[in-house]
Amino acid sequence: MSLDERKKKILSSVVEDYIESAEPVGSKTIVDKYNLEYSPATIRNEMKLLEDDGYLEQPHISAGRIPSTKGYRYYVDNLMKEKKLSMLDINYIDNSITGYGDTENLLEQASDTVSKLLGRPTILTLKNEDIIESIKLLRITDKILLVIVMSKNGTIKDCVAKLTDIIPEDTVNELTKVLNINLKGTPLERVYYALNMVISKELTTFSEILGQISEGLRRELNSGVKKISNNVESILELPEFSDVEKAKNFVNILSTKDILDSTLAKVSNNELGIIIGSENKEILLSEYSIISLNILDDKNIGNLSVISPKRIDYSKTVSTLKYINSKFKNLFSKPN
Amino acid sequence: MSLDERKKKILSSVVEDYIESAEPVGSKTIVDKYNLEYSPATIRNEMKLLEDDGYLEQPHISAGRIPSTKGYRYYVDNLMKEKKLSMLDINYIDNSITGYGDTENLLEQASDTVSKLLGRPTILTLKNEDIIESIKLLRITDKILLVIVMSKNGTIKDCVAKLTDIIPEDTVNELTKVLNINLKGTPLERVYYALNMVISKELTTFSEILGQISEGLRRELNSGVKKISNNVESILELPEFSDVEKAKNFVNILSTKDILDSTLAKVSNNELGIIIGSENKEILLSEYSIISLNILDDKNIGNLSVISPKRIDYSKTVSTLKYINSKFKNLFSKPN
DNA sequence: ATTAGCACTCGATTTATCTAAGTGCTAATT
DNA sequence: AATTAGCACTTAGATAAATCGAGTGCTAAT
């Protein structure tokens, strides 16, 4: 499955030209633009062979070639040169990710920034494997409590519990103890289940209030797709979406949480994973690629994925995600 | 500017048929479907007159008629019968709006529900005219403070402030005082400005921390478009969007906060307001209608607007919003 | 005041024609 | 053996012409 140098050059030229132009690439273009020292006829012969081997495809018989999924894969694994980001891009990222707020704010900023920079939607998924460090209760009024959860890695989440009866100070203290004893060490994403366990075994005195807290925290802390930064203006301008049906399909994919959740669950465990077109198990995604960054600290914090038609500048995307990742590592390593 | 009964019947038939079919309505359709006791020729004469008066338009000379903005306006003001919602719809709404969480959660649920029910995007705008009752600070760690803002009507908002230096207990107490003295009574939406005033006149000791708080609260509390429930699957299916350019334009409008903010600022002060097509000042919106509900308690809490091509079932939309409003009134009147 | 009758208009659909890009193959060349 | 010039061939896409049908506006009759 190895290609000689000339084939490699041709394949990489086709991929890069197609990524830029969105038009099938012909033999003449390759000779002219990419300085191959051969005639178009030679290139044609080689392209035929590359097509026979499944690296290239021909939309129709009198058209140029476009990369197949296999072609993109070979390019990504063997041919792609990692581009350095331009100073402009670096500045843009640095200015957009201010580090304001907690980890979640930070990831959201990163997600928006990447989406804007690449002109593709990004999907931010939170893992919440982080575990609870402690819980505080703050009395707001007689009947309203603010429940504040602090995680080991510094995530702070809260929810409001509205009760029907007035809560005496004792109860609040007692409740704080109960919550801390039972929940310390629990992963954030499992708080809901843990609390329901507590409810089922604890005195019924607390069950109403615990129910409220459980429901509130479930909404704040569940894992899964958190946010889609959908830079729609630019994505719909892609020639891939000049056909309304395709545009609709894509929009549909983006708004179907299940598809995204299950697809992103299958991304590799490495920091960087690339799924191209039909490599995707989900058939609706067979014309799209997902390039995703697992955000790791001690634990898997979340995942930031770029979704796009297969035609995307993989090199720039990877560089961007890597740069974002280095920023994360930097910010995480700083003491809070 | 008053129309005789027959013209009214014809106009309302054209509007209702066009709302349903999205096709220009011809004289024969009206006679057949709406039981007018006249021949198509008579209807044609009347339609001609209605067109001369600006109530109807003809896409081209050999087509049927469609309502003009003026025609829709007359229909909405004089002809439209308010439909009762079906039990199905009422159940759907009742089950979707659970009343969980604070006011903001509630409005978001309502916005999503209306969007799903009508198959149109909804825009939720929050006003935050509600004023600050008190502010508490909670120390999370040496360097992290949780700032909790409580409003008069029960909204609770918070943000995290991360500082570079360790904050002594005294400082926290002092700061709490400063914040309460300066911010009590301030409308939530003006907290940012109020805090910056404080910063400019207070001792520089607090300026870093106040800056953090100011920034954090600005993000939590600013007024304006809060959430767009964009039920994209169904909206893009409308025949109005079979042309990609129009679809893009609409998507663009939805993602341009400025357009929506300034348009919604001009909506009437009544609980229910309807802006049709070119009545809109913003030229980009001249083919769209906005039907919006101002949500009032003591103060103006926010606005829930449906945005759509001019062709929308105004009657059902109005009924839905009115029903939602009655639910709000019910929930607000209950004590917390 | 209403309507039957009819010529007319124009968008939409279909069919035919043309063009340009790019191929694959063969035979000649290096 | 590798490369390339030459050429017939294919096909998408653009343009033009032909046809169809829905619906009109006007005139004259009822």
How does this structure look, described?
Two copies of one chain form a homodimer. The first copy, chain A, has three domains: 75 residues, Arc Repressor Mutant, subunit A (Orthogonal Bundle), CATH 1.10.10; 151 residues, 2-Layer Sandwich (Beta-Lactamase), CATH 3.30.450.40; 90 residues, Heat-inducible transcription repressor hrca homolog, domain 3 (Enolase-like, domain 1, 2-Layer Sandwich), CATH 3.30.390.60. The first copy, chain A, is 48% helix and 19% strand. In chain A, the strands form three sheets. In chain A, strands 7-3-10-9-8 form a five-stranded antiparallel β-sheet, sandwiched between helices. In chain A, α1 crosses α4, α2 packs across α3 and α5 packs antiparallel against α6. Chain A is elongated. The mean pLDDT of chain A is 91. The interface between A and B is large, with 36 and 37 residues. Chain A binds a DNA duplex (30 and 30 nucleotides) through α3.
Query: From the 3D coordinates, which CATH architecture of the largest domain in chain A would you assign?
Result: 2-Layer Sandwich
Low-confidence stretches of chain A: none
What is the CATH topology assignment of the largest domain in chain A? Answer: Beta-Lactamase
CA gyration radius of chain A, whole angstroms:
25 Å
- In order across it, which strands form the biggest sheet of chain A? 7-3-10-9-8
| Chains forming the largest contact | A-B, 36 and 37 residues
CATH superfamily of the largest domain in chain A: GAF domain
Q: What is the name of the CATH class of the largest domain in chain A?
A: Alpha Beta
Averaged pLDDT of chain A, please? 91
- Structural class estimated from helices and strands of chain A: alpha+beta
Helix content of chain A: 40-55%
Spatial shape of chain A: elongated
First-to-last CA distance of chain A:
50 Å
| Separate helix tally of chain A | 13
